[in-house]
């Protein structure tokens, strides 16, 4: 059942992506409303997919690459919908939904079979730690999307060539506010993710920290966002610099999420699991 719901979710995200592209090109409000409605429907069915997968497997569906890519897409769309409710920026969906769709497509190519958990993953920390981390990934990915939009808009303004995107994107002030809002939500979630991971590590391996590649890169990502938040609060970083840093930060997170798991071996790499 979860596979059927998964495929339906992928189709809805693909349709939402197409709808948002039509909207950002044509600026026809009905296209924007339809795209938003389809994205909401996709998020609803995605939530159902995760719930059904949980009951079919008996554990939180965040233990392999197929599940993790799906959960990341869910967190990203959830983050986008939250920002839309707060700032009413439909065009952000034209940048968020393609990433979610790509993540879901990659997930669809991976093995979906439910298998027994390795002993080390049989812990109540699994759903807490993984869920918090993916929520952080999702909302910080939205910050990067806002950063990309900021750079596009700023470039047009500086060159005084007000192309097709100029009337289609929010003001620089709004995009910077979205970036900052996502940072103030995502950084605390990253912090909780590291703390819960440390507690879980002590329970599983007898030590809070082992300098495993995943732990090390998680710390690097956390320090990067800590520095960015400090510079915004203490130094007053805004605009272009903050937008670029948000994009770089997402790159660091994605390497922590995918690059470390696929390229570097350590305690967080389980044969056949892709964790």
How would you characterize the overall build of this protein?
With 275 residues, the chain is mostly helical. It has two domains: 1-116; 122-275, no CATH class. It is 76% helix and 0% strand. The protein has eight helices and no strands. It has helices at residues 2-26, 29-57, 65-87, 93-108, 125-159, 172-205, 213-235, 239-263. Helix 3 packs antiparallel against helix 4 and helix 6 runs antiparallel to helix 7. The longest helix is centred in the middle third of the chain and has 35 residues, at 125-159. The protein is flat.
- The biggest beta sheet, please? none
Helical content stands at: over 70%
How many runs of DSSP E, i.e. beta strands?
Answer: 0
Strand and helix order? HHHHHHHH
Q: Mean pLDDT, nearest integer? A: 86
Count of all domains:
2
Beta percentage is under 5%
Roughly how many Å is the radius of gyration? 19 Å
- Runs with pLDDT <50, length 5+? 270-275
Structural key phrases:
2 domains, 8 helices, flat
Task: Summarize the structure in short.
The chain is mainly α and 275 residues long. It contains eight helices and no strands. It is flat, with a radius of gyration of 19 Å.
Break the fold down into its secondary structure elements and pairings:
Layout: H1 2-26, H2 29-57, H3 65-87, H4 93-108, H5 125-159, H6 172-205, H7 213-235, H8 239-263
Helix pairs in contact: 1-2, 1-4, 2-3, 3-4, 3-5, 5-6, 5-8, 6-7, 6-8, 7-8
